[in-house]
Each structure stands twice: as structure tokens, then as C-alpha cells.
Amino acid sequence: MADRDFDVQGFARDINELLVLATLRDEAKHGYQIALDVEGESNGLVRFRHGTLYPILHRLEEAGLIRGRWSTRGGRRRKTYDLTSKGRKHLDGGTDRMGGIVDQLMRVLRPPEESPA
Amino acid sequence: MNEVTARYGDFRDGLRDVANRLSLPLTTRLRILRELQADHVDTVARLMERGIPEAEARHRARTALLPDGETLAALERLHQPLYRRLTRNVENHRLQQLERWALLGTTAAVVALGVSALLRGVLGTLIGITIAAQAIEAAGNISTSLVWGGIKVALITSEFGMLILVVAALIWFGLQFRWRMLEARELARADPVFAGCGDRAPRCGGE
């Protein structure tokens, strides 16, 4: 049995949060750059539209997993986010947990391999 | 209105719409709007740097960044103030009634405070002048400046009392305004005919 109950509704939210955290692993980025990176790295599979990224960013910021800072670059002011140490731990743990869930789901979805005669 | 604005709509209009639809404290709303605005400017510039025409860049940025109804609701849930979080389960109508009672109590307390401050101030002045008059009577012939010096000190209590009354009156006006707003909202809830009423007039929104 899984160490944590599988919540279908929370699954999508967890994936979105982990994707955002993963794009911030190496450098600080601003809102739309995060969206573009997620879209690019998932080959267009995941798209944040209609500002859906902002509730995720603000929730992660409130939880202390990312830190938002206003900066100026090329004369343009923007709010960039970077990963906190708490966020990095959360990302590592979340990635392992997500991997386990996906493995179990695939076990259900794939037909059982026929044993050799 | 230029061609781009005419075709795709103005981002500022979208922001204005977001500002109107978000029922959050002003500072929180401004924080969200500032971030959206900054991201929009940056996104349009980045897309244009990639060779995307301005009109298309603006359209893409607008679609990607302006929150839809569901996202606005999520932002509201996330940023709602402590007062709203605590009263989340209390029925809205009940909450308004409680607010009206609290408002009534606060108004009465403010009026009582202001009036009592003035009365105490005047009383302080009268006692001060009485004591000064007794001292002058006992001393006999004294200089005028000494008399006025005493009266000046005695008047300080009245001045402070008046000042507190003025502050209380300003607060009272603010509370009255809020009271009328809640009253109008309750009227509108009871009967749509009263929608738009700002005072006790019985049928201001009617025929």
C-alpha cells in the first residue's frame, strides 16, 4: 500500500507545482519564462494559459518553496522567482513520489506480460 | 485606438477587468496587477525578439497572462484576508448583520468618547479657571500676564477635548457611510427594486 493516499484531484495540481519547481532548479525565472520552459521541455504537452500559472506561483511562494523578487533587466521591471532550499527538498521528495505513482498506474494500465511457455 | 488594440483588445482593459472582478484588499490586488503588467511587457518584448509580429505577440501574451474566471477564483481563495478565512463558513447575510451590529456599537462608542472628551475638557478648564481665580483672590494685586498664563493652561484641556471630538466626528462619518452601504445592500437583497439605493428612501431604484 502507498504511504500516502492517492488523490486524483490533487494529482494534477502536484504535477503542475513540481513542473514549476523543476524549471527553477538551475536559475531564477519570471512568470512567463517558467510557462515557456515548461511548455518547451514537455514538447508542448503542458501549457499554462489564462494566467493559470499565477495561483501556482503564489501558492508556492506562500508555502516558502520559491521566493519572488522584483528586479530590473534591460530597463524592464519584472518579478523573478527562485527555488528555496525547502523547495529543493520538496521537489526531490515530490519527484520520487510522483515516479512511484506513475509506476503503479502503468502497472494497472499495461496488459500483463504473458509468461513464456 | 491603433490597429493592434482594435484587433486584439487592450491589455489594460483586461487588467481593469481583473481589478474589478477580484474582491481582495487594494494592496493585494495591486501586487497581482503589477506582476501581470510587468510580465506582459516582458513577454511581448521577448516574443517580438523572436521575430513574432507585434500584434501576434500582444495577442499571445494577453491569452497567456490574463486570468480567466477560474484562475481569478483561485487567486482570491489564495489571497483572501484572515477575516475572510475565519468567516468562510459563516453565511454572507449573517456576516453582514453581525457587521451592522458591530458598526452600531463602534459608532455609539465613538460618539460617547468624543462627547465625553469635550465635556471633560471643558470641565477641566472651568476647574482650572476656578482654582486660578481663588489663587488670584488670595494673592490680591497680581500682574495680567500671570492671569492669562493661568487661563492659557486651563484652556489646554478644552482644546484637547475638542480635538478628540473632531477625530471622533470624522470616524463617525466613515462609520455612517459604511452603515448606509450595508443597509442599501440588505435592501437590495430583500427586493431588487431597491438596488442602487444609498439611503433610506423607500423606492429609489424603482419605476
In short:
Chain A is 53% helix and 15% strand. Chain A has 117 residues and is an alpha+beta fold. In chain A, α1 (8-23) crosses α4.
Note the main attributes of this structure.
heterodimer; A: 117 residues; alpha+beta; three-stranded antiparallel β-sheet; 4 helices; elongated; B: 207 residues; mainly alpha; 8 helices
Q: Structural class of the secondary structure composition of chain B?
A: mainly alpha
What is the mean predicted local confidence, pLDDT of chain B? Answer: 79
Number of strands of chain A: 3
Question: What is the 3D form of chain A?
Answer: elongated
Q: Assign the structural class of chain A, choosing from mainly alpha, mainly beta, alpha/beta, alpha+beta, or little secondary structure.
A: alpha+beta
> Largest beta sheet of chain B, briefly?
none
Percent of residues in helices of chain A comes to 40-55%
Fraction in beta strands of chain B: under 5%
Name the average pLDDT of chain A: 85
Characterize the largest beta sheet of chain A: strand count, sense, and whether it forms a barrel: 3 strands, antiparallel
* Rg for CA atoms of chain A: 17 Å
The proportion of residues forming helix of chain B, as a percent range, comes to over 70%
Q: Helical stretch count of chain A?
A: 4
Poorly predicted runs of chain A are none
Q: What order do the strands of the largest sheet of chain A run in, or round the barrel if closed?
A: 1-3-2
Q: What is the number of strand segments of chain B?
A: 0
Proportion of residues in β-strands of chain A: 15-25%
Which two chains form the greatest contact, residue counts included? A-B, 20 and 23 residues
The coarse overall form of chain B would be: elongated
Question: Assembly type of the shown chains?
Answer: heterodimer
